[in-house]
From TrEMBL, chain A:
Keywords: Cell membrane, Membrane, Transmembrane, Transmembrane helix, Transport. Its main location: membrane. This is Iron ABC transporter permease. It is found in: Cell membrane. The lineage of its organism: Bacteria, Bacillati, Actinomycetota, Actinomycetes, Kineosporiales. Pfam families: FecCD (PF01032). It is a multi-pass membrane protein. InterPro entries: ABC_BtuC-like, ABC_transptr_permease_BtuC.
UniProtKB/TrEMBL annotation, chain B:
SUPFAM superfamilies: P-loop containing nucleoside triphosphate hydrolases. Gene3D superfamilies: P-loop containing nucleotide triphosphate hydrolases. It holds the Pfam family ABC_tran. It is a peripheral membrane protein. SMART domains: AAA (SM00382). InterPro entries: AAA+_ATPase, ABC_transporter-like_ATP-bd, ABC_transporter-like_CS, P-loop_NTPase, Siderophore_ABC-ATPase. GO terms for molecular function: ATP binding. Keywords: ATP-binding, Cell membrane, Ion transport, Iron, Iron transport, Membrane, Nucleotide-binding, Transport. It comes from the Bacteria. Residues 7-243 form the ABC transporter domain. This is ABC transporter ATP-binding protein. It is found in: Cell membrane.
Amino acid sequence: MSTPADLRQASPATVAAVTRGRTRRNRRRRIVIGILVVLIGAMVAVSLMVGRTFYPPGDVLKVILGQDVQGATFTVGRLRLPRTCLAVLAGASFGLGGVTFQTMLRNPLASPDIIGISTGASAAAAVAIITLGLSGSAVSVFAITAGLGVALMVYLLAYQDGVSGIRLILIGIGIAAMMNSIVSYVLSTAGQWDLQEALRWLTGSLNGVRWEETVTVLITMIVLVPVLFLGSRDLTVLQLGDDTASALGVRVDRTRLLVVVCAVGLIAFATSATGPIAFLAFLAGPIAARLAGPGHSLLLPSALVGALLVLLADFAGQYAFGTRFPVGVVTGVLGAPYLIYLIVRANRAGGSL
Amino acid sequence: MTTEHQLTAENLSLGYKDRTVIEGLELAVAPGRVTAIVGANACGKSTLLRSMSRLLSPRAGQVLLDGKEVHKLPAKELARTLGLLPQSPLAPEGITVSDLVGRGRHPHQGVFSRWSVADDTAVAAALEATHTVELADRAVDELSGGQRQRVWIAMALAQETDLLLLDEPTTFLDVQHQVEVLDLLTDLNRSRGTTVVMVLHDLNLAARYCDHLVAIAGGKVHAAGRPCEVLTEDTVRAVFGLDSKVIIDPTSGGPLMLPIGRHHMVA
């Protein structure tokens, strides 16, 4: 091995090759993001136009612009529009919350719906609505408090000379089971509730969405998403391990606290609106990682994948089968086999996101 | 040559929970030199390194970089001067070599700043220095242990720090890769003037490659100085509890330690 004159110098050819490689990977990421945005746009349009009655784009546009169209004003304006908007917002929230946890804990199984955070928020929302008869922002407060409480509880129970991912996941699964039994109990006390409503708190549903809920989720996102994105670079560096991240100038504890609060906030508010849409937080990150490639922040791709999944699953749940299924049933059917696949693979190779 | 930074530990005590590992340790890292830290397992050499790079807060005493406490410096500012390669860093699944090396640029980038020519140049220089240019677009998880270690060192190089701490950079490597890594660190020290501090297992390689050898025992610096002063039969007995014979290394003229063990006698 020869001693280079100055290790800080690089040959122009190498610099060009590095730049080329980086540009190529960035391009793939940008193309994936572009395609996802187009698909979401298309699905939004389809969700607004197609249903039991078809309304042409012109009618839909008029309704959005506030004009009165016979029939469409109610169906599109009051039913389909809030539902579609919430599908996008909740899907993005779940995708963001999920990928944040998965990246931070370096394990796809560590998503908030597996480790009990969504279930905790859901249990709190169910208690607030069904048992206590609350509504509106009071429900959201309950949900986010419970979400943070469960996150803290899982963290503290898993803490033993630092947090190990596997221990945290196992404890989280236990807590999720407890929270699920709370939901079941609350639902059993509310006999007059119909199955559709009950399913909201078990698997998540977009049925009977009102603007009020959509706006709450939107405001949460406007507040929390920028904060989360500010931490996104630090979060990517955190994947290299706490020691390496810290050596690279990341304040590990502060970053972790910041992104956990944002992620739990997003999950909890979305959950209080739609219920815990099954496996969505869990699915969005890994799918986004496969599509966009490794090496960069997965926040934006996961948010888009989450939104697209909810739009697709909700549309399929409503119209693809004889009966109308809530969105969570469809995502659950997709998610469960993927969970098994991941567990099998993790057993073989000990993989991460 | 780069500006020479003073890294010192004063009356440093470190520990985990109820266990004290380092107590009242004094150390001044020789600027612009290669320092190797040796000692028995669990003597606190890695703990010391973690504390010097701020990963562990001291129980008492302090670590000073140019007279300022490292634990009070802004994280990114410190990371532009002082780099650390931990013993087992984690590579995200599927990440390419050049993306991983690029993570070393983190302390030089702001939240909103874009990837710059300086970043690409630093990555390219780090790849060239570690002879990993041809691996640039490969996934890190496909590489062999020796290649992977060179890539991690490349990441630390891309950080462009004047001080570089490495925790057992040669562990798990075959002997030819161990020598390759140590040669590389020597290159780095000679061409950039980077101050290198590394924890090493192999006493003989440590003595061969460092300018300054520090032996830790009982939570303190047992001996420190030039390898020929430190690596003696007495030090080996005191630090490792091992009888040995120290001879002159025919290649370097430095000390070479031969362990004796129970089944052999000194002629």
